[in-house]
Amino acid sequence: MSDSARPPPNLPPRERREGHRTVHVAAGVITDPRGRILLARRTEGRDLAGLWEFPGGKVEPGETPEAALARELHEELGIDIDVGAALINVPQAYPGKRLQLDVRHVAAWRGTPKGREGQALAWVAPDKLARYPMPPADVPVVGALLQPDRYLVTPSPGDDDAAWCAQFDAALAAGIRRVQFRVHGVDADRRRALFAHAHARCRKAGAGLLVNGDAALAQASGVGLHLRAAQLRAFDARPVADDVTLAASCHDDEDLALAQALGCDFVVLGPVAETASHPGQAGIGWARFAEMRERTSLPIYAIGGMGPQDIAVARRHGAQGVAAIRGLWSRR
Q1: Strand, helix or coil at 321?
Q2: Might you name a Gene Ontology BP term for this protein (predicted)?
Q3: What pLDDT is recorded for position 171?
Q4: Second CATH level (architecture) for the domain 150-324
């Protein structure tokens, strides 16, 4: 990850939610016929001047987000639009205010976009978006556009490695494109064989593979590394190269701050709901998830009792998507 792609380091500390005004902003993902996405640069005299963002503006009292987006893009860019599907809603804390960034796809647009308020514009290929320094609230939008919306955590194989391999293949066939290899209770030889299977299948499917907790294996095999929450305190620098995906498990604000400082590319946060492995233990709930989401710009997967049916509600609370074992493990 390049320095310009990293989330800004000066995020606000945890603040009391009371007394901070909430600003509701609607933003649009505008795509041209070549698949490029339009960004606008914040002008001098504004907060976070010089950073690039998805164009849009404030939702006025009594106005719907759809109407606000259409109005703002006409005023700012001189185009008329058809508002498309919701992408993600990002709650973000800034000094003295709280932002709700409501991001929609623009299904169609008419006219020629121009910076009518003096802002620079750039049409950017999707794979180049991370090179543009952005406000904290816009960084998760890039993740929602480019990264998978589900993150499979593999279960232990029990006594049947062949069945585990078959179910792993079925998960990839069902569309899983990001996997954390985590198996417990097996000896080193079985673990190597299972990892070799997962590695080969992910390469063939074009899926991202991360290994749980083993930095040496990640470096040796060229896969990503997923750190356990306790490991976040064991490193004072990024334990893998910048071009190797780094993720972490987080459970609270301190974990999130450590993950961001370490340069993680994304995290999982939870448990959000009660899980089968911990019956009777309530999760943090969506309200607390969104509150923690406000204080980091990292893409976040919600974990804990999650499945594909929860992706939409996760996105409404600022999540990249969902992470799960049982909820995403294909059954044959």
Answers
A1: strand
A2: DNA repair
A3: 97
A4: Alpha-Beta Barrel (3.20)
